[in-house]
Structures are given as structure tokens and as C-alpha cells.
Specification:
Elements: H1 12-34, H2 40-56, E1 63-67, E2 71-74, E3 77-81, H3 90-95, E4 99-104, H4 108-125, H5 133-140, E5 145-152, E6 157-161, H6 210-225, H7 228-242, H8 246-262
Antiparallel strand pairs: 1-2, 1-4, 2-3, 4-5, 5-6
Helix pairs in contact: 1-2, 1-4, 2-4, 4-5, 7-8
Length: about 260
């Protein structure tokens, strides 16, 4: 019979089962990264992860984990830790994209485990232009895994849950609520129903994604630090080489002669 264990503490059997499941899951993720789908080693690792999670439901349901930079914790007790791999570790892969807690439900091992492994593999090899892990999870809409993540709005952090409606945030303790355009019909005199007005929208909803902001900052830095004199000289050489008009070539040569002296 499946029982829910109180938050006051977990027995050694519960902790051991959770530790085994997380180790098996991490091993399965490494197998997914190393082997092709038809490889027997990969299939065996995934099956072992399934069996390990199935054993967890004997003691605990749901399985609620907190995500730290280098570890997973169960009621503030470390049940998985990877400090040696640092930026390559499984906890960091989740933590860097804002995930702060995971809740696994019975059925995850049969329906969603391989989906999550595939998403984590994609997230690890993704470029800066690809979707982050939270977006991938939202699109996949896994049925037996819920999660909470922190989204940086540019001014403060908002805690989002996987079950939240798109665009609606649950504010963190002490934070002001996030303004969202109302879906109701406008009051009489304010225009026809469904009319979209600019004042209905809060501009802070549309801050750039952190990766987009970092990309723009890098481009600005490159633009301001690049030696423009080199670009000017290259343009003049292009004119001299490509223009058939002798007058244009002579004019470019005269400018080039003057610029070389000034530079």
C-alpha cells in the first residue's frame, strides 16, 4: 500500500529509495547522451530508472524534491549531489534555467521518464537561440511531473508553477502581484467587448529573456570596442579593387593616402 510520509522526517528506507531512483535517473541520462536509441546499454539504464522510481511509490507519493545548484534535497536532506561535474551536473542543468522544485507522481516512470530524459539531453546541447528547459517542459506538457521555477522579469523574481495558466504568475512572498490584462468584457462606455487597449498591458511583462539581453550586451560591447579604422580602410580597398571607374579609384586612393597619414 502506498503511504504519504509526513514532512517531519523520512525513514532511512524512504531516503534510500529516493537516492537510488535519482542515481538511476542520472545514469540513464548519461546513457541517453552516449548511446543511440537502439543501444541495449541505453535501454537497460532507462529500464533500471523506471524500476527505481516504481519502488519509490511503495514509500512515498508524490516525490517532492527541491533543486539546488549541485544537489537535490528531500525535506532539506540531500538525496543526490554532484559537485565534481559542476556545470555539467544534473542539478545544475535544472537550476540554471530557473527550476527550483520538482514533484513526481506515480506513472512518471512509464509515461514521462523518457520524455524528461530527451528534454534534458536537448537542454544540455542547446545553443543560446534554442528554447530553455522550462519552455520545453511547458510544450511537452508532461502529465506526471509538476515543477516550480523562478522567472526573472527584469525587476523582481516571480515563482511560476507548471499548472499555472500562461501569463499568470503566483507572486513570491513579499512581492507585488504581477499585472495581467483582464479577460473580462470592458465596462460600458470603454469600447466594444474584446477591444484591446494599450493601457491594459503592463510593459514589465515584456522584458527580454536573460539570454537575449546578454546577447544584445555582447553585441553592443563588440560594436563599441571594434576598431572602426580597419573597417574604413577595408571599404576603401574594396572600392579600389571592385570599381571600374578610374575617377572613383583615384578618389578612394586620395582618401586612403590621407587616412594612412592620420592613422
Amino acid at each position: 500500500m502506498t503511504v504519504s510520509v509526513p514532512d517531519a522526517g523520512f525513514s532511512p528506507e524512504v531516503v534510500s529509495a529516493v537516492e537510488d531512483a535519482l542515481r538511476a535517473f542520472a545514469k540513464a541520462l548519461r546513457a541517453v547522451q552516449l548511446y543511440l536509441p537502439n543501444n541495449p546499454t541505453r535501454a537497460q539504464s532507462v529500464e533500471q530508472a523506471r524500476q527505481a522510481f516504481a519502488r519509490v511509490w511503495t514509500y512515498l507519493t508524490p516525490l517532492d524534491l527541491q533543486v539546488r545548484e549541485a544537489s537535490f534535497t528531500l525535506d532539506d536532506r540531500v538525496v543526490y549531489q554532484d559537485v565534481e561535474r559542476a556545470g555539467e551536473s544534473l542539478p545544475w542543468l535544472l537550476y540554471r534555467d530557473g527550476l527550483r522544485s520538482l514533484s513526481f507522481l506515480p506513472g512518471f516512470e512509464t509515461q514521462d521518464l523518457e520524455i524528461l530524459l530527451a528534454l534534458l539531453h536537448r537542454a544540455r546541447t542547446a545553443s543560446t537561440d534554442d528554447d530553455d528547459l522550462v519552455t520545453m517542459l511547458w510544450v511537452a506538457d508532461v502529465a506526471h511531473l509538476t515543477y516550480r521555477y523562478v522567472e526573472n522579469s527584469g525587476a523582481s523574481d516571480f515563482v511560476m508553477a507548471s499548472g499555472d495558466r500562461p501569463g499568470v504568475a503566483t507572486q513570491a512572498a513579499g512581492e507585488l502581484p504581477l499585472a495581467v490584462p483582464p479577460a473580462e468584457t470592458q465596462p460600458p462606455g470603454d469600447g466594444p467587448p474584446g477591444l484591446v487597449r494599450p493601457e491594459d498591458f503592463e510593459s514589465t511583462l515584456y522584458f527580454l529573456d536573460p539570454r537575449e539581453a546578454a546577447y544584445l550586451q555582447d553585441e553592443l560591447k563588440r560594436e563599441y570596442t571594434e576598431d572602426q579604422r580597419r573597417l574604413v580602410l577595408a571599404s576603401l580597398f574594396d572600392i579600389i579593387e571592385l570599381q571600374a571607374d578610374v575617377g572613383a579609384q583615384r578618389e578612394a586612393l586620395a582618401i586612403l593616402d590621407q587616412l594612412v597619414l592620420e592613422f
